[in-house]
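Supplementary Methods, section 5.1.

A reviewer requested that the exact input to the structure prediction be made available. We therefore reproduce it here, unchanged from the version used in the analyses.
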Amino acid sequence: MRVEPSIDNEEQHIAEMAAFFRKQVESKKHLGMLVLFASGRAMQRFLDYVTDLRLMLLVQGDQPRYRLVELHRKRVANVSVVCWWAYSHLPKGLI
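The structure derived from this sequence is encoded token-by-token as follows.
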């Protein structure tokens, strides 16, 4: 990573991370990813960079947690790519 993750460089850092994430998805090396954010605002900014990938993402706040878990299980059973996007407390109840 070239850009330091600080408030002064936030937009550049998010753009760099989004480009990195996109490369990882396109490489198809990973069937699962968990992307954690320090805040919901940072997560939303990141999502602005990957709108074309939005349907493949399980994003905290889109649906109730139980529904996201159901979708996760279905994707795992079908050997589909699973990408969780969360901030704050969601992963504590899942991991």
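The longest helix spans residues 10-27. These observations are discussed further in the main text.
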